[in-house]
Every structure is written in C-alpha cells, then in structure tokens.
Write a structure and sequence with these properties.
The radius of gyration is 21 Å and the shape is globular. It is built from 13 helices and no strands. The chain is mostly helical. Helix 1 packs antiparallel against helix 2 and helix 1 packs across helix 13.
Length: about 350
Amino acid sequence: MKNDIYKIGDRFSRSNEFDSLRLFLACCVVNIHVAYLMKNPEYLNFGKIPALSIFVFLSGLLVSESYYYSISILHYTKKRLRRILPAYFTIVFLGGLTLYLINLFSLNRYETSLFALLKYYFFSSIFLDTLYPCIKKIPEGICSQTCAINGSLYTVRYELFFYSILPVIFFVGKKIKFFFPLLSVFSLGALSIYNNYISTDPRLILLLCFLSGVGISMSRGYWMNILKRIKIYSSIRFSLVILITILSGGYIPLFITLPLLTIICLCPTKDPDKDFNAIKFGDLSYGIYLIHWPLIKVLNPLLISSGIPKVFYPMIIIISSALGAIFLYWHIERKFLYRDNHYYIKS
C-alpha cells in the first residue's frame, strides 16, 4: 500500500515516548474514574487532562502509519481487529460475569437476572453497551453510569469507526495535493475553535483529534528532518512528556498540546539504549483502560470496609489494573498479534 506520493520518509523511530505517554494517560483515566465512582477527591490536575482526546490523537498518528505500511486493506483490517477485539470481548465477558455473581449473592440483594446479563453481553458485543450498561435495576434518579459494568467501553466503537474511515481518507489524500498538511492545519484550527465551547459534541472533538493525528503523521516529511538536529537525554524527554500532559489540563490548549507532544515524543535521545522502555511488560495501556472500571466496582466495597484511607485508592486501583493488564496481554492479546506488530513481544 506504500506509495511515494506521500513522501513521509521512514517509519517513526522506535526510540520514542508514545508508549510512556499512553501508559500515563491510562493512569490519568483511572484516577478520574476512581474519583467519580469511589467518591474520592481528585489529585493534582488529572481530572482536567484531556486524556481521551490525546489517546485518539495518538491512535490517528500511529494507525495511519500502520495502514500506510500494510500490504492491503484486508491486512490492515485484520491487524486492527486482532489488536482491539480479543481483549475487549474478554473483559466484556469476565466483567459481566463477575459483577453478575457479586450482585446475585450480595447481602443487599440487588435485583438482577441471567437475562439481564445476556442482554448486557448482546449490546456490548455490537458495541452499543450504553443502551444496556447495567445488569441490575437502576434506582430512580440514578445515572446509568453509576451502575454500569464497564463505563469505559463506549469509546471502542469510536475507535473502530475511525479505523474504518481511514482508507477513505487515504483515497482522498491520493487525489488532492498537500491534502495531509492541509488536514493537519484544518483539524488543529477547528480544535482551537470548538474545544472552547461546552456545547460542542465531544464526538466532534474526538474526530478532529483523530484527523489531526492522521494529518501530522502523513505529512511528517515536511517536519521530521528538523528533529534530527536535536538530541536530548531520555530522562528529560520523558519528564517533558509528563509535564506537557499535566499542563494540558487547562494550561496548554489542546490544539497546541497535540503537535507539541508529537515533537517531544519523537525527539532523538543521546543514548537510545537507556530509553525508558514502557512496552517491555506488554502494551498495558489498553488493558488498564479496559479493566480498571470493573475492578473499581469489585474493589470499592472491599476498600471501604477495610478502612484504608482514600488517598491510597487511586494507587491501589492503578496497580491492580496494571497486574490485570499484564495477564491480559500475555495470555490473550499477544496470542492474536502478528509477529511484526510493534506490540508483539517475544517471550
């Protein structure tokens, strides 16, 4: 599928901070949901960080390269489905079953049924989990998210939609000169306008973030050469990525944050062998994102009854989610990945 008309140069360097950034964003999402579901105070600036928007931007940035180097649309489609679906369906099944059994044998006698569990499985399997997110009767006046088995799953359908339109974007890119640089400028410009309005549909923001990532990735032939003249210590690169991400929560606008993070993440280091290798235990960010919500639902009553101070709740959930993500990667996700996949790690 590679075509010289894009002139994107080589692949992104393996020495980058994208994996570290994704892992940090996953931890930010956990912190936000711990505060929401466990009535915990928010710490630092995590609640304001646009973690999901940055996640989707990175998806556009990296998946467009995956598409570019795929031998066919079918090969690209298989890679995406193998990457997303095995872990997704595993967490849907285990999360639903675990919460069903807890509700079934709970002393509070929550109203639940096997039919409710099957309905949850059906709607989640077609990525419409928001239509039936719970397996127990929702008390009147209570938001459905409060009882949702996994309130994080709704974003997966957006990811799959973005993946599906990527071939169309590339088709247009072949017909229009300078399409991808223009796409970058247009998407970031639109973000600078719409992201400031509360009434803006968040799905539009996510779409613009994805398009920004695609545009920046496929027009990198215009800007990547600048970075080759710079070399910094890996510890400085890592620290800058974390700092910029934290400052994105209200201090640095999103349309500046996205290209700035891209540049810093790809900035060459003085000794790549000493880079912080966040991927060596597996791709944990996706697993953490999928697993943390049901873990919060399971551990919340146990932590409350244990008397552990709430200040420790986020760290407990993050560590538990990371351990679950390691198991999920090595026993489920890795088995479905192609061996040339960036996230495939040899045992």
